[in-house]
Design a protein that fits this description.
Layout lengths: L1 H14 L40 H4 L3 H13 L1 H22 L5 E12 L10 E17 L4 H67 L5 H36 L29 H4 L1 H22 L4 E12 L11 E10 L7 H67 L5 H35 L25
Antiparallel strand pairs: 1-2, 2-3, 3-4
């Protein structure tokens, strides 16, 4: 019996090298080799440092924003869920991997039974006892065609995907906090501008009212001055609301209240962001965690095909135990009390109404779906980076033009006010100059916010926001979690 068991073990070891998982082939990237070129794009330059290696503390210069990002990384619930998902998928991998090894268990039992006299063969009441101690293996499947290992590989790739999902969540969180903070600061600047403009409008209305009292300004002039005041009050209420809502949005992202010891924020006109290298499209395959996660999902789907193929072949499971059996406790481990059992079982699929074929077809279709999703993630990343590059060049031009427009409106306002006060021009020209200046100043703040958020989104699109310092290169582990035997 021992020789047959040894032969069976050797045979199982030889056949365990068999795998029916298809050879994995990485799909070709369905995008151009270079980013778009044209009037909206700046000339391509070689990148000395990839965006993904540029730490967020290095990219964001505002100390207040740095503190908010650090707070969010500690307290944000979405990021916490993503981290817990890694542990959950690691546990699932451990469960699946455990099927590769036999489950050994020890069992001890004892029983005493009294048989009444009328049921006993001797006609007298009898008491019987039985004690046993066994060590056994139950229903261990010999993985002859790699079914169990295919399922284990599928679970492992899903685990790797969850790690990349956690990276993607952190990158999105860093960008979301930055954009929420910049929006908050822009709305506060718009609120301050509106407050100052309202004070100027009210002063102008007061002067016009006095002029109307002495007969210099008409009732129409007074009415027009009042419309400017009321319009500014509408804008004041709007921006007051937006600032409050911005704080609420930022609080949600942080996962806690905004710190009371937050450093003084820098104005939007300051140098808030570092220069961002764009790199090459091929780097997206190595830097973007959502692309890497999609590829791990594709590998998991590829492994499931191996499991579906293996289901067509026979499976063998073993159940065996050895121990000792005795009618009394004292003789449990004495010579001659040994017992054993060996129960192999083979399952050969013969007829299943096409369910195995359908399962294999389903696995192949799922792989095709994951290929499409992987390719779509690459196309999405390419589009996001291309949009960011176009925004970078055009926003620089737009901002400079808007600054010149504000300066021109300031000159127009000063001239119109002087000419109105000395009676050369009508109040209508002065009010038009006031409104044009206010509108131009609002647009300048809005355009600066759009430029900053586009740079943040480009940083995110290139895979930045994972490291804290550019000198600290953080890599996601590509090793299976250690096996816990107990």
């Amino acid at each position: 019996m021992s020789k047959s068991l040894l032969s069976l073990a050797i045979t199982a070891a030889v056949l365990s090298g068999c795998s029916l998982i298809p050879d994995y082939q990485q799909p070709q990237a369905p995008v151009a080799a270079q980013y778009p070129q044209g009037p909206a794009y700046s000339p391509a330059e070689a990148a000395n440092q990839a965006a993904a290696e540029q730490g967020w503390r290095q990219f964001f210069h505002d100390p207040a924003l740095q503190q908010l990002i650090q707070t969010a990384l500690v307290n944000n619930r979405d990021l916490r869920v993503a981290a817990l998902n890694i542990d959950a998928y690691a546990a699932q991998y451990q469960i699946q991997r455990a099927d590769l090894f036999p489950a050994v268990s020890a069992n001890g039992s004892g029983s005493r039974q009294r048989t009444p006299a009328r049921m006993s063969q001797t006609g007298e009441a009898a008491i019987s006892s039985q004690y046993s101690a066994t060590l056994g293996v139950s229903a261990y499947e010999l993985d002859l065609f790699g079914r169990v290992r295919s399922l284990s590989e599928q679970a492992l790739q899903t685990y790797f995907s969850s790690e990349e999902a956690r990276r993607s969540t952190q990158i999105s969180l860093v960008a979301s906090v930055a954009n929420a903070y910049l929006t908050w600061q822009a709305d506060k600047e718009l609120l301050k501008l509106t407050q100052d403009t309202l004070a100027a409008y009210e002063e102008s209305y007061r002067l016009t009212s006095r002029s109307n009292e002495v007969g210099v300004a008409s009732a129409l002039d007074l009415s027009q001055a009042r419309t400017s005041v009321e319009n500014a009050r509408v804008q004041l209420a709007r921006y007051t609301r937006q600032v409050a809502q911005d704080e609420n949005s930022l609080t949600l992202l942080l996962g806690t209240s905004i710190p009371a010891n937050l450093p003084s924020p820098q104005p939007l006109s300051a140098d808030l962001l570092s220069e961002l290298p764009a790199g090459l499209p091929s780097e997206l395959l190595q830097r973007r965690p959502d692309i890497l996660a999609a590829e791990h999902n594709l590998k998991a789907a590829n492994a499931s095909i191996g499991a579906a193929r293996a289901a067509f072949f026979p499976s063998i499971s073993l159940t065996a135990n050895a121990g000792t059996l005795s009618p009394d406790m004292g003789g449990l481990f004495k010579g001659g009390s040994g017992t054993w059992s060996f129960a192999p079982q083979i399952n050969i699929p013969i007829f299943n109404a096409g369910s195995l074929r359908a399962s294999l077809d389903y696995s192949k279709i799922q792989k095709d779906i994951n290929v499409a999703q992987y390719e779509k993630s690459i196309q999405t990343a390419f589009q996001e980076v291309s949009d960011g590059l176009a925004a970078r060049q055009t926003y620089n031009q737009q901002l400079q033009a808007q600054r010149d427009f504000v300066n021109a409106n300031q000159d127009y306002y000063r001239l119109a006010e002087r000419r109105y006060r000395i009676g050369v021009d009508s109040n209508l020209t002065f009010l038009d100059a006031q409104r044009s200046l206010f509108s131009a100043q609002q647009a300048l703040i809005t355009d600066r916010l759009a430029q900053l958020t586009s740079e943040v989104n480009l940083y995110k699109a290139l895979g930045g926001g994972w490291n804290e310092q550019g000198s600290q290169k953080v890599e996601v582990s590509k090793e299976a979690p250690p096996l816990k035997l107990f």
